[in-house]
Amino acid sequence: MPPEPTSNVVASIAASASTLAMAMLGVDYYALIWGLIGALLALYQAERMGRIRSLVFVALSTLVGAACGTAATEFIGSSRPVLIVLSLIAGFGAQVLVTTLLRALLSHVGKLESKT
User: Fold this and answer.
1) CA 71, 77, 83, 88 torsion-angle sign
2) Which SS3 state, helix, strand or coil, does residue 94 take?
């Protein structure tokens, strides 16, 4: 029985997204997915945030998690399951780093606005 056209389209979209992620960000598609899952898990433990702040937090935590997971895997020289676990942990742990960076950025912008 031939595969359905819908499954071919979905497979093509997934392959394109993976290629695009590797080309633009230099990280594996699996690292992005599991970094996103880690960031979403950390979001539940975070303080109450607005929608925009939550979106920025999740996006930055995903990228930080994927980058850290990929870098650690390159350093260790391991396989995909290790990449997945490291990206999940880094995405979850990026909460502290991203929160600190966002607070510093907002503080700096506030200082610049008060000077003008």
Assistant:
1) negative
2) helix
**H/E stretch holding 76:** helix 51-76
- Residues 6 or more apart whose Cβ sits within 8 Å of residue 93: 38, 42, 65
**pLDDT tens for each residue of the chain, 116 residues long:** 555 555 566 566 666 665 666 666 677 778 888 888 888 888 776 667 777 777 777 888 888 888 888 888 888 877 888 888 888 888 888 877 777 877 888 888 888 777 76
Among residues 46, 52, 42, the alpha carbon closest in space to that of 88 is found at 42
Between CA 81 and CA 97, with CA 95 as vertex, the angle to 5 degrees is 105
pTM beyond 0.70: the answer is: no
